[in-house]
Each structure stands twice: as structure tokens, then as C-alpha cells.
Design a protein that fits this description.
CATH topology: Growth Hormone, Chain: A
Mean pLDDT: 82
Helix content: over 70%
Distance between the termini: 32 Å
Shape: globular
CATH class: Mainly Alpha
Number of domains: 1
Low-confidence stretches: 190-204, 404-413
Strand content: under 5%
CATH superfamily: MFS general substrate transporter like domains
Number of helices: 19
Structural class: mainly alpha
Length: 413
């Protein structure tokens, strides 16, 4: 048992590193590059911001990534996804046209589900059955740890070696993690066990609703609607924090430092809210995390001053940080692990609407008004609706939620 726990901890650490690189580089550093791309390549703010709309591909590729995860396990999916991320950054120094920027961002976002979002949920669910909340919170802390590192590091790198070399360095970091994943990551239960398998361990892991059962349930649609609205944070708020502060007269270095503090509170949110999911229903914890985001946005907007960002950071950071950790826990608690990859993939697929519309709306709003005030207010209303909706998503109670020895792949087909 101790050896098994040790192996789970090592795997969780690799997932932590994947979160650190994937989220830290793709999300926290994006806004730091904006003004340099704008000045060097002559692209408009709206053109650059539109690239975030390719975040919709996270939703689109979550479905095949989830299916592949249920069929073949986490290791090949994770390794292939990190390889794609490496390629998307290694090629950026040679960008000259905005369509190239869009294409590389498309590759980046298409790879994200397999790199962290879905694979992390499966691995934590399998290896930490009794402490999923804390394990998911600690593992997903890598996302905010990446924010602490890469928001400030990006500003420093751009100042010292330029934006082109900075992108190339980030590509090398992704490439370096691929062999680590191949050597370390494995599923606790193989995705296609032999007919004689199906002991207690496999049974516990494969309990849960099938894809068809989930789609017929009211809770699936409540969870989906709530997460479609809540995940607007990723593509519509976070990438605009640094540009917003710069627009208010804050220097790039100071804005990046403030974003790092934002990430610190995000780490605290993952651990604290993850711990709460082991004591309270995940749907209530999710609603509370979204409420924190709303409060943070309202504090920032009501103050009317960029200096109040420091007061808004704790509330919004706690809620935003918890969101990514609670999402897989919410789906696991509601539908079990039997077809987790495919069901979670379907939920993420649905988020492509907000991922596509949100960044375009924010960019257009900024071009029209010269500020982010109106866009952020509209987003805060969407978050309120999300919090109210998810609170009514009760766990599925069908017979298939009881442990069974059947492999996941058979139910997810």
C-alpha cells in the first residue's frame, strides 16, 4: 500500500508540473506579450485578443481527448498533448502574420485537454480515492504556481531577450516534460483490463454512470450550463488583467507582479476549496467559488481605480483558483469514474460557446469604449447565473453508480 501511495504521489507531482507549464505559459503569460506583439508586428489589440477565442478548441478537443483517455489511458494522451504544446511555442519566433499566431494558438488550445484538464482528473480520481479533494487541489495548484512564475518571468524575459526568444524557451520547457511523462505516468487501472481482471480495485474505479445515462439526467445539463458560464473566466477575464492594468496606467512589470499575487491566492483557493469538497457537496463548493469571483470583480469595478486591484485579488483569486480543481471533482461526484473521460469531455465541449464569444465580446467592448468596465460587468452577471445553476445539480443515483467490474471502455463506447 505504501509503495502504491508513493507511486501516486510521484504521478501527481508530474501532473503538477504539467499544470505549471501549461496554464502558466498559455494563460498567465498571454497578456504580457500583448503590447510587444502590438508594437513589433503592428497587430491591433482586437486582433491579438481574438486569438484567445481559439480557447474554444479546448472544448472541441476535450471530447476526443476524453474518449482516448478512457480507451488508452493517460500516458499516451498526455505525452502527445505536451508535444503539440512544445511545437506551438517553438515555431512562434518566426511569426510574421496574424494568421500564423492564430494557427499556433489553435494547436496550443487543442492540446490543453490532454495535457492537464481531463488527464489530471482521471489520474487523481484513480490514485487518491479517499482524498480526491485535497489531491486535486494540490495538483491543480501547479496552474497558479505557473502563474506566479511565468507572469513575472515573461516580463523579465521579454525585457532581456525579446518576445521571440521567450516563446522559444517556453517551447523547450514543454519538450523537456514529455520524456518525464512517458517514464512516470501510468493508470492505476488499465483502460482495457483482461477478462479475468475486475478485482475490487478495478470495481471501485469503474463505478459510475454511462455516457447515455449522464446525457439523460437533469444534472448533466445543469452542470454543463453552469460551467459554460463559469469558464468565461479563462478566456475573457484572466488574459485581459495585464492589458486592463496597463490601460489604467500601471507599468507592465507592476501589472505582471499583481497577476502573480492573483496566482498566489489561486493556489490557496485550490487547496481550501478542494478540502471543502471532502466535507460538503461539490456543487455547493463550486457555487461558493464562483461567488468569490463575482465579489472580486465587483470590488474592482466599484472602486473605479486600478489601485483597487490589490483589494480585489484575494476574493477573485480564491474563487478563480478553485474553479479548475473543482470541475473534475464535480463531474466525478455527480457521475462517477466509469466514463469520466468522455462525460467530462462532453462538458468541456459545451464550453466552446463561451470560449468563442467571450474574448471577442471583451475585445470588441474595449475597442468601442476604451475600457474593460462594461465587459467585466456583463461577465459578473453570467457568473451569478452559473453559481445559482450548479447548486441544483444533484448526483446521479442510477444502479450503475454502484461498483462494477466492467471496463470503462465498454460503457463509454
Amino acid at each position: 500500500m505504501s509503495a502504491r501511495i508513493h507511486q501516486g504521489v510521484v504521478i501527481a507531482f508530474v501532473v503538477f508540473l504539467s499544470f505549471t507549464l501549461t496554464v502558466g505559459i498559455t494563460q498567465y503569460s498571454f497578456g504580457v506579450f500583448v503590447t510587444d506583439l502590438e508594437g513589433d508586428l503592428g497587430w491591433s489589440r482586437a486582433e491579438i485578443t481574438a486569438a484567445v477565442s481559439f480557447f474554444a478548441l479546448v472544448g472541441i478537443f476535450s471530447l476526443p481527448a476524453g474518449w482516448l483517455l478512457d480507451r488508452y489511458g493517460a500516458r499516451p494522451v498526455m505525452a502527445a498533448s505536451l508535444t503539440a504544446l512544445a511545437v506551438s511555442y517553438l515555431l512562434r519566433p518566426w511569426m510574421t502574420e496574424v494568421w500564423q499566431f492564430y494557427a499556433l494558438n489553435a494547436i496550443q488550445f487543442a492540446a490543453m485537454p490532454g495535457a492537464v484538464i481531463i488527464t489530471a482528473g482521471r489520474l487523481v480520481g484513480e490514485w487518491f480515492e479517499e482524498s480526491r479533494g485535497r489531491a486535486m487541489g494540490l495538483t491543480a495548484m501547479g496552474a497558479n504556481f505557473g502563474g506566479i512564475i511565468f507572469s513575472s518571468l515573461t516580463a523579465t524575459l521579454i525585457t532581456t531577450i525579446g518576445w521571440r526568444s521567450s516563446y522559444f524557451v517556453y517551447g523547450l520547457l514543454f519538450a523537456a516534460l514529455v520524456p518525464v511523462v512517458i517514464l512516470v505516468v501510468r493508470d492505476r487501472r488499465q483502460p482495457a483490463p483482461s477478462a479475468g481482471g475486475g478485482g475490487q480495485e478495478g470495481s471501485a474505479v469503474t463505478a459510475g454512470a454511462s455516457v447515455a445515462e449522464a446525457l439523460r439526467s437533469r444534472s448533466f445539463w445543469l452542470v454543463t450550463i453552469a460551467l459554460v458560464l463559469a469558464t468565461m473566466t479563462y478566456g475573457s477575464v484572466l488574459p485581459q488583467v495585464v492589458p486592463h492594468l496597463e490601460n489604467e496606467g500601471v507599468s507592465k512589470t507592476s501589472a505582471a507582479a499583481a497577476l502573480s499575487l492573483f496566482a498566489v491566492f489561486g493556489m490557496c483557493g485550490k487547496v481550501s476549496f478542494g478540502w471543502m469538497t471532502e466535507r460538503l457537496p461539490s456543487r455547493y463548493v463550486m457555487a461558493a467559488s464562483i461567488a468569490c469571483q463575482v465579489t472580486g470583480l465587483w470590488v474592482l469595478l466599484a472602486a473605479g481605480s486600478a489601485s483597487w486591484f490589490w483589494a480585489a485579488v484575494p476574493m477573485f483569486g480564491l474563487g478563480f483558483g478553485a474553479l479548475g480543481a473543482i470541475m473534475p471533482l464535480l463531474v466525478q461526484e455527480t457521475f462517477g469514474l466509469r466514463a469520466f473521460g468522455t462525460i467530462f469531455g462532453l462538458v468541456n465541449f459545451a464550453t466552446l460557446g463561451s470560449a468563442l464569444v467571450g474574448p471577442l465580446f471583451v475585445g470588441a467592448s474595449f475597442e468601442e469604449t476604451g475600457s474593460y468596465y462594461f465587459a467585466f460587468m456583463v461577465l459578473s452577471v453570467a457568473f451569478v447565473v452559473a453559481a445559482a445553476t450548479v447548486a441544483f445539480a444533484r448526483p446521479y443515483t442510477g444502479a450503475s453508480m454502484r461498483p462494477a467490474a466492467a471496463p470503462v471502455a465498454a460503457d463509454a463506447s
